Amino acid sequence: MKNKYTITMWLPLILIVLVELYLAGFITLKYEQNNKNVMRNVESIRASYWGTWYVGKELSQLEAQIKKSIYLNKQDNEGLLEKLDFLIVSYEFLALDVKISPLLQRYAVNVLQENIDKLDEVTQQVLLKEQPINHYPDILAIVEQLKLGHDNVVFFELKGSDLNIFTDEVNRNQQVLLYIIYTALFMVTVLITVWLVTYLNFKRTQKQSNMDELTQLPNRKHCMELITVKIQKKKQLCCLFIDLNGFKQVNDTLGHHAGDEVLKTISKRVSYSIGDEDIFARIGGDEFVLILCDYGHDLNVQSIVERIIKQIQLPMYIDGEAVNVGCAIGISFLSKDVDTVNKLFLTADSAMYVAKGLKEGNSSNYQYY
């Protein structure tokens, strides 16, 4: 009984712990994945920042180069082409590199691509003319348009100086969230454990108060409760009061442990011989009560009683000794006059004492009330 209770109590707790570990592992995995996504986004923002910074830097240098050439009235085709190449490379990094935020890439292409193409085309045409320096202002005008577009791109993205603050804030929020989740899981585990232990203790105490400890049959109190329910349901009931003959002799000659084995053996034999709706209980000492439910005809009761007597009279072997006991059975029926549990017990008990007076040795007898 104790081992069965221990298994019943700990098995649900083990299952709860396993579920908690699974949830904790799942949440930790999701946290790590989310953290990787956050860091990937941070790197994308950082790359986007440096991409726009390089484009702006090349635009400023190209603008300065053109203004210098105009001011000195000196053409610098080689320097112009070099700066233009750097600008194109920087733009391609911003518009095509996988590290750049896709949203920023699309915006940069929409804002800058047209003027980049126009700048490349105009620059090549200007450089082919005899006096290209006279057309540098045309290139300068396109560069000014690119700078305006670049300012819009810069405004569109996060500043690089905000990245560390952003990263720390995200990590801090996620750590707080994890702490809350783990605390909630722990509290749920504690509450479920307390409830489960309390419930199992209650069920064990309830069962112990209703059952006979030796035979695991219902005791007198619980038996009367079960019969009351049957009476309320208008069941056809027959009460058999069973008292063992020769039981005292077993206790006196072989000891009380042998008597206990006799009681347990008879409890099992009779339990196997009755229906699922029937009630078999030990009400004290060597006395038992058997309630037959919906037994049909009275002749069926006689057949059942004779079968019970045969089961009780079968030899039992205890410590190598053959033990035989008999029984006296009093039989009473639920009727208009016998309509309560107490009356059913009293009438069956009276009939049992009559049968007891008819015994010879360990013989068995039964008597109707």
From TrEMBL:
Signal peptide: none annotated. Keywords: Membrane, Transmembrane, Transmembrane helix. CDD domains: GGDEF. The chain crosses the membrane at residues 7-29, 176-202. Residues 235-369 form the GGDEF domain. InterPro entries: DGC-Regulatory_Protein, GGDEF_dom, Nucleotide_cyclase, Rev_trsase/Diguanyl_cyclase. SUPFAM superfamilies: Nucleotide cyclase (SSF55073). This is GGDEF domain-containing protein. It comes from Moritella marina ATCC 15381.
